[in-house]
Amino acid sequence: MLSPFPYSDSNKRYHTQSYYLKKRFGCKVIKISLNCGFTCPNIDGTKGVGGCTYCLEGSGEFAGSPLLSVSEQFEAVKRQMSRKWSEGLYIPYFQAGTNTYTSPERFRQLTDEALGLENAVGLAVSTRPDCISDDILDILTELNDRTYLTVELGLQTVHDRTAERINRCHTYRDFLVCCERLFARNINVCVHLINGLPDEDSDMMLYSAEEMAKLPLHSIKLHLLHILKGTVMGGQYLRGEITPLTLEEYVHIVCEQIKLFPPELIIQRVTGDGGRDTLLAPEWSLKKFTVMNEIDKTFARENSFQGINYRK
User: Cβ(271)–Cβ(250) under 8 Å?
Assistant: First the structure.
């Protein structure tokens, strides 16, 4: 049975990235994760050391190898994807590390290479809200005129107390200032939130979502906190200092968050899976499709959908 939600052609009751891209481009569009070898000001000592407490050597665990060029990584992943989708269009995704934390010259060279790839119809750039210089912003503006561009900002939480505990090294105000600069250039912004961060209850997580619903965002990604081996948070978990969310808790929180978002907001992600070899907890997160199915079943059982609790 099809969903009663207007931005859906399946049983989904929220506005998926797949639905949006198919409507925009008329066919399947696949994001290709890339690793350009960038570090982070929270790792190299500029703002902090060690990175966020949940982070394992920078973000982008499933991105390509920085030893390969953008073109080589793209072709390698494209060959793997062709086993599932024989044809389609592609969006190169600068995922690993802080992808605007570099010189304007290198950033321009890498983005030009990405946009020159066969059947590339857009570009996604993941970064921190405190790492977009005026020169980089000018290049992003040029890219936005050339292609379908999305800048993905890692916020994780609106609560500065939590951000300090996880060694985020920027504030919610830093994020809002960055958003205003990007909005002023008509650049699409995707925000990342993490559910299950230490000392955050469901009300705090819903408040983060409610704050995002006030902004003219293009899209959002909802992540589950993965506790990984070799991280500061991994040690905290092994000492019994952190309790991860249960599957039932996570599904409830995500559904309640999605109800708060405006219907047109694109939900790029509702969960995620850590690497099987590095994951400490929660083990249920390895069954990603089970999590997604439980979200779908909850919306259907409640006869609810994205935006039902949205307030302008």
Answer: yes
